[in-house]
């Protein structure tokens, strides 16, 4: 018998482990006939999606993947299922079906090379590989590399996902190579499969590998608890409501689509799958499919605002809400999006924090500010998400918070239930990243008097020129206002006189005449001299496309490698 208020025990009636899987069951119950997924001519209702997910979970159990029909934790073998696919219905279904089977989803970036995918599959020991028909040869090459490696590993099941929007020859090739057809696999499963939630909410739901923009990919392990809390935080922070029509411009393989895979089921919304993201496709979906919301990295927003007139359907038929994260968005891009009728919510986070975990929460008093000032305010990374318990900017050595003066830089640190469980098989990295009871982001920022944080750079991207720290982000923000520049990334280049100096890699807008690059470089440097401190001005400007990850992040480590090959800026040229 309970003696006091805190002695009342948990029981089956008042406690269950938190998991986002229940959102799907509820959506199928509340809105069984509402469209859940739309992909070209393919359309499913929430009832059908729930049945398909149960079929897949059942089929995986039949192949000894996951907990099996008994749910016995002692039989947890073959727990990881890799999914190599773009934004198609099967990718969405996998986010529910795989954990419903008691297994862990391992979404793989489809733009990685075969060598890297081989590393990920071998490191994760994924027992099943589900691959889109157009990525099959890539997966096949990766599996061959893995089989011939020093630590060979072979998945027990290879599944090919067909897409009627693609050439059937690639599907037939995969089937002839012994892969199991995804739809045939589903047919073997039970649509009434009695799945079980996790016994412990700390149980892993997903394994996501970091993008490798600054180092080798690391396996980020996420829990059912964290996924649930982030899924519920998303609509609270963004204001996305029940029945929203959501366009998948953000890859589902990136942080599980920032957990919006599960959020959309909680909202009983409609998922519009977009296999290839282009500005034309985005505008078309807004006009044709009634899109109300989408998430995208700043590079996608840049493409939208610079879309040719023939591709841009303007004015927009309705207000379209956009969440952006992944890199610090230039204020100029936010301003242009606002001018075109998009309302952008700026967030910030990492794979290690289930996606976005801070938000530049809009304040009503900003409504009266000039539009360009609004854009500058909205370019800050903001305050913590509802589901994040701790956020600060600290001196990384003393761990003391920096003053809220908008100028003193420190490292962004976080703690709470939407921080990862840890890195898979990497105790050294775990010890470093969780030092002093905080998750260390590696991002350098300032804290403003109103408590909002603003990223100035990653610790590896700060340029130290003549003893002065230069934020590459601030240099980029100024350069983005140049009328000829479509994209820009600034890194440190060795400099004989200053130690380091800024080097700008620039992609020009399509309409710009690029025949005289030397003159263009001089014009850009002149513009920089007129709009920024002299020591910020890039000493080198190079033109061409920028290397990016699948989510649009510019791979600065590749640019740093390039400037090393170029050698230092000569003192005589200054």
Automatic annotation (TrEMBL):
Annotated compartments: Cytoplasm, Cytosol
Keyword Nucleotide-binding tagged: yes
Positions of the AMP-dependent synthetase/ligase domain: 24-424
Gene3D superfamilies: 3.30.300.30, N-terminal domain of ligase-like (3.40.50.12780)
Keywords: ATP-binding, Ligase, Nucleotide-binding
Gene Ontology CC: cytosol
PROSITE patterns attached to this UniProt entry: AMP_BINDING
InterPro entries in UniProt: AMP-bd_C (IPR025110), AMP-bd_C_sf (IPR045851), AMP-binding_CS (IPR020845), AMP-dep_synth/lig_dom (IPR000873), ANL_N_sf (IPR042099)
Transmembrane segments: none
Residues in AMP-binding enzyme C-terminal domain copies: 474-553
Molecular function via GO: 2-methylbutanoate-CoA ligase activity; ATP binding; medium-chain fatty acid-CoA ligase activity; propionate-CoA ligase activity
UniProt keyword Ligase, yes or no: yes
One Pfam match: AMP-binding
Predominant localisation class: cytoplasm
Family to which the UniProt record says this protein belongs: Belongs to the ATP-dependent AMP-binding enzyme family.
Protein name (Swiss-Prot/TrEMBL): Acetate/butyrate--CoA ligase aae7, peroxisomal
Organism per entry: Turnera subulata
